[in-house]
TrEMBL record:
GO terms for biological process: establishment of mitotic spindle orientation; regulation of establishment of bipolar cell polarity. PANTHER family: ANKYRIN REPEAT AND FIBRONECTIN TYPE-III DOMAIN-CONTAINING PROTEIN 1-LIKE, WIDE AWAKE. Residues 202-299 form the Fibronectin type-III domain. It comes from the Eukaryota. Residues 1-25 are annotated as: Disordered. GO terms for cellular component: spindle. SMART domains: FN3. CDD domains: FN3. Pfam families: fn3. This is ANKF1 protein. It comes from Quiscalus mexicanus (Great-tailed grackle).
């Protein structure tokens, strides 16, 4: 019999203990199991068990129980319990795709009882249908066998209960009878669900788009009617013929968390037709053709054969840096570093003194000058010196040169923290010929080396986009770095940020706080900025807004506070690729100097990119507080698509030429709402690279 074959196969794989004999028993098992998993299982360690073998035996016992509890939750159609188990335990812990003694998987029971919510949850967790149901006949035969055997068992137990005198054994038989009656009803419901089901309808919609010059993206939606059976997989087919004869390829998708598929390895410039069909336990339904009916793999670069802007740039820069290092190996600027007996002796003396005063290198207070501070944080903790001070070292106590240019130079240095010693050798010059700027930058490198040496780490992190100044003449440059691991540093220790802020005794007045007090007050804001500046955009095509403002010594760019490493933007669509046809349309629109599309036009309603841009422009104008009628004078940057890797690309929306950059003293009538800030252009470029 089919059922006996299933059981023999299961016994060959692993012997599994029987599940609970009744719904109430299942509930008790689940409650006990949940408690054991939450308390005992997660607290195992080597010292709590006699040996590793006992630990493994106990773990397997819990896995067996979890599998039984999941089966019972599915059979009872308890969606909340199924969800909770899938949330807290992995498919391996739940033994999700191992059949029970009846040859069934949890997903089989869910789909044959037509419990769509549980079936979808199981599918998203990676559940599969039993591979033994190779045909409709085999599934029907297996269900009929289960029903017949359950009915036979019910009749046998009923006869025993009726004929035996009341005793302990009879009471146990009654419990078994109730359990088998419940299972008999379950199997009949599964058999009826299978018999009444029909193949699913076609997917309700299939969208086809160009993903690259060799691939197409297919996105589809569930059928409007599944005909009393849950869809468990989809089939994507493609061909160069609208009749799909011959068929060039097909793919079956059984991971249904995201209903999309990318067809790879296609020929650029060739038209492909695509269709999708759905499957349930009754078989494949009719296919649904895509919209548009075909697509041609291509990329906007094919329009004029343009190569990627950044191709080979990293290699070229590495080669250039290597050449510079080679030239500087015998440079005269290294001579002061070769003959320094007195300086070395003095350095040794200072090092010995440092052994007795471990905190003497870090400053407690600022005394009118330029300083460097390094903020290392992990969760809600921050690194401080043994005297509960933020690590601060002095750069220059007589600083009087233009700060912004030196500051921007230092932000570039932050990209090569490991090369500070070499940079110091390159910048070293004799005092007689040393300019003010060169002296300041050399002192910056000395301060960086000092901070690195005291902390015992090279990478000081990212430079905050503006230094902190106070009315006492102090300037504080801040670096920020998040520590992911339990890393230890020299001369410093971890303390909670709130403890540091509440415990510091300010030496300044609230009206005129020192730079250190200002840093502590705004510490959370700076940490939030640092974390946000490392966030990445989700894959897709975006519309960015370029707005600059100039000052005497710098140009700043408008960015959102929530993502300061990217221009103000809205998402156009999830597909980042601009096809050749779409780029040709954008070029045509730019050549005739047409305004950006803000209002619907009937003759272009069939162009998907036109419709997507309309929606995106309206959303972007609302975001940056610009009236929509003003956008008619804006234009799309038509020289190139800005690609950030393979998954993110940008189209730029530009104001009129005279308004791209606001000059000093010029009023901007449309000030963005809160949630934006302006970064120095060089800082923004560095953040974009990170």
């Amino acid at each position: 019999k089919m059922t006996q074959q299933m059981r023999d196969l299961q016994l060959a794989q692993a012997r599994k203990p029987p599940g609970p004999s009744s719904p109430n028993a299942a509930k008790r098992l689940y409650r006990n199991l949940s408690g054991k998993f939450r308390v005992n299982y997660t607290s195992f360690d080597e010292g709590s068990l006699v040996g590793r073998g006992e630990k493994e035996k106990l773990r397997k016992s819990y896995l067996f129980q979890s599998n039984a509890a999941l089966f019972e939750a599915v059979e009872l159609q308890d969606f909340d319990r199924v969800q909770e188990m899938l949330k807290h335990y992995s498919p391996e812990e739940l033994d999700l795709n191992t059949p029970n003694s009846e040859g069934l998987l949890p997903l089989d029971i869910a789909i044959m009882t037509n419990n769509a919510p549980i079936a979808r949850a199981l599918l998203q967790a990676g559940a599969k249908e039993s591979p033994h149901f190779v045909s409709l006949e085999s599934r029907s035969l297996h269900l009929s066998t289960l029903v017949r055997e359950a009915e036979q068992r019910v009749n046998e137990l009923m006869a025993q209960v009726v004929n035996e005198a009341p005793n302990a054994d009879c009471s146990e038989k009654e419990k078994q009878l109730k359990a088998w009656e419940w299972r008999f009803r379950l199997y009949k419901r599964m058999k009826a669900g299978f018999e009444h089901a029909r193949v699913p309808d076609a997917p309700s919609s299939v969208h086809l788009s160009v993903a690259s010059s060799t691939s197409l993206q297919v996105t589809f939606w569930e059928p409007l009617s599944v005909n009393s059976a849950v869809v468990t997989k989809y089939k994507v087919e493609w061909s160069c013929s609208p009749t799909f004869s011959p068929l060039l390829g097909e793919a079956v998708i059984d991971k249904l968390k995201d209903l999309h598929f990318t067809i790879q390895g296609l020929v650029s410039g060739t038209a492909y037709h695509v269709r999708v069909s759905a499957y349930n336990m009754k078989g494949w339904g009719p296919p649904q053709a895509s919209t548009p009916p075909f697509a041609i793999p291509s990329n906007w670069r094919e329009y004029d054969g343009r190569a990627p802007r950044r191709r080979g740039q990293a290699e070229a820069l590495d080669h250039l840096l290597g050449q510079v290092k080679t030239v500087h190996q015998h440079c005269i600027c290294h001579e002061p570093c070769k003959n320094q007996p007195q300086s070395r002796k003095h350095s040794v003396s200072k090092s010995l003194k440092h052994l007795f005063h471990p905190g003497s290198k870090f400053l407690k207070t600022l005394k009118r000058g330029l300083y460097l501070t390094a903020i290392f944080y992990k969760d809600d903790n921050i690194l401080v010196t043994h005297e509960d001070q933020i690590p601060v070292v002095e750069i220059d106590d007589t600083y009087s040169c233009l700060l912004m240019q030196d500051f921007l130079w230092l932000t570039k240095v932050s990209c090569m923290w490991d090369e500070i010693l070499w940079l110091r050798q390159c910048v070293t010059v004799s005092q007689s010929s040393c300019s003010c700027i060169l002296q300041t930058r050399f002192k910056m490198l000395l301060a960086i080396s000092q901070m690195q040496g005291l902390l015992g780490i090279q990478d000081l992190g990212q430079v905050f986009f503006e230094p902190i100044k106070d009315k006492q003449g102090n300037i504080l440059i801040v670096t920020l770095k998040e520590v992911k691991t339990n890393q230890t540093f020299e001369s410093v220790r971890w303390v909670p940020i709130c403890k540091l802020q509440s415990g510091r005794k300010s030496v300044s007045s609230p009206e005129e706080p020192t730079a250190l007090d200002t840093l502590l007050i705004s510490l959370q804001d700076k940490l939030a900025y640092h974390q946000r500046s490392s966030h990445a955009l989700s894959p897709g095509l975006y519309l960015g807004y370029l707005k600059l403002c100039s000052a005497v010594d710098q140009i700043r760019v408008l960015v959102p506070e929530q993502l300061p490493n990217i221009l103000c933007h809205v998402k156009i669509r999830s597909n980042p690729n601009i096809s050749r046809e779409e780029w040709e349309w954008l070029q045509k629109m730019a050549s005739v100097e047409e305004p950006v599309p803000t209002e619907p036009e009937t003759d272009r309603s069939q162009n998907p990119l036109f419709q997507e841009l309309q929606v995106a422009i309206k959303e972007l104008m609302t975001l940056v507080n610009i009236p929509l009628q003003e956008a008619k004078d804006f234009r799309l940057y038509s020289q190139e698509v800005l690609d950030f890797g393979d998954q993110v690309s940008f189209l730029l929306l530009l104001p009129p030429s005279d308004d791209v950059c606001t000059a000093p003293g010029q009023n901007n009538p449309y000030t963005p709402r809160s949630g934006f800030l302006t970064l120095p252009l060089q800082i923004f470029e560095l953040g974009e690279e990170r």
